[in-house]
Design brief:
Helix Hairpins, 4 helices, mainly alpha
């Protein structure tokens, strides 16, 4: 979200000064203030959703890395198991020991496979969570943009010394922004 201009406070004070002369302009100035507060809140929610998206995606990557490590270990156990089975099949004085090693590696494989699948399920859940946050972020971005546009249009009512159409348009856009923000969480 873009930083607010340092002169924005002066602009609000100027709007208030104009509003003192005309009651309708006072209503417009209050509308602008309310829209600004709502826009700030929606902008904060947008930032929170952005951070949550990045966090969930990062966690998904870490879970995938852990799962990949487990699957590599699973493959190593598979190779060891096969080598011990070949050695046991060849016979000899260590055949029984080789068979036991093959069984242990097979048991380890099953444990690693279960852990790898569990990590992949957690990864998928984090990716799904990330998608929800990303969708909210996108909706909130549109909503805060509508609110900012509504503030700019409401200002036209002050500049035009009480023209009502900009204020009405600002209200419609502001309401659309608020509904959009609410829609992000439905």
């Amino acid at each position: 979200m873009a930083e607010e201009a340092p002169t924005e406070d002066f602009e609000h004070a100027e709007h208030a000064e104009h509003a003192a002369a005309d009651p309708f302009l006072a209503i417009v100035a209050m509308t602008i203030a309310v829209l600004a507060v709502i826009a700030a809140g929606v902008g904060s929610l947008e930032t929170i959703e952005t951070a949550a998206t990045i966090d969930a995606k990062s966690e998904a990557v870490l879970l995938q890395d852990k799962a990949t490590d487990l699957w590599n270990f699973f493959q190593a156990k598979s190779l060891k198991k096969n080598m011990y089975e070949i050695a046991a099949a060849a016979g000899g004085p260590n055949a029984e020991s080789f068979q036991q090693q093959a069984k242990r590696n097979g048991d380890d494989q099953q444990r690693l496979q279960a852990q790898g699948k569990a990590l992949e399920q957690q990864r998928d859940a984090k990716l799904e969570e990330s998608g929800r946050h990303e969708h909210r972020h996108e909706v909130l971005t549109v909503s805060v943009t509508l609110l900012h546009i509504s503030i700019a249009i409401a200002t036209i009512a002050i500049i035009r010394r009480g023209a009502r159409w900009p204020w009405n348009a600002a209200l419609i856009l502001g309401i659309a922004g608020v509904i959009g923000a609410a829609f992000a969480y439905i």
